[in-house]
Amino acid sequence: MKLHLDTELCQGHSRCVMVAPELFDADEDGYSMLLHNGDVPASLHNKARLAVDNCPEYAIEVLEG
Ligand code: SF4
């Protein structure tokens, strides 16, 4: 699975970081950034989908998988 984060849409709630800290981190301004270039190992697919579902701005999408 691969994720894409639209930084124009991200408002920095950090909900993604809370539900999937293995996949997201906050930058110095509090906006989210993808770890591992957005690549998601199979063991974290559920967490990735949880992050997508919990982003109020629809800023995260699944590109593959
Ligand atoms: S939940 Fe969405 S809008 Fe909020 S920080 Fe994460 S990607 Fe950005």
Give the radius of gyration.
Answer: 10 Å
| Order of SSEs | EHEEHE
Helical residue percent band: 10-25%
Shape type: globular
The pLDDT mean sits at 96
The strands making up the biggest β-sheet line up spatially as: 1-4
What distance lies between the first and last C-alpha atoms, to the nearest angstrom? 4 Å
Structural class per helix/strand content? alpha+beta
Q: DSSP strand (E) fraction?
A: 15-25%
User: Could you state the oligomeric state of the chains shown?
Assistant: single chain
Briefly note the CATH topology name. Answer: Alpha-Beta Plaits
Care to count the β-strands? Answer: 4
Low-confidence sequence ranges: none
Name of the CATH architecture: 2-Layer Sandwich
Name every ligand kind in the structure.
Answer: iron/sulfur cluster
Walk me through what this model shows.
There is one protein chain. Helices cover 23% and strands 23% of the residues. It has 2 helices and 4 strands; from the N terminus they run βαββαβ. The protein has a single domain (2-64), classed as Alpha-Beta Plaits, CATH 3.30.70. The chain is of the alpha+beta class and 65 residues long. It has helices at 15-19, 45-54; strands spanning 2-5, 24-26, 32-34, 60-64. A two-stranded antiparallel ribbon has the order 1-4. Strands 2-3 form a two-stranded antiparallel ribbon. The longest helix has 10 residues, at 45-54. Residues 5, 10-16, 32, 55, 57, 59-60 line the site of iron/sulfur cluster.
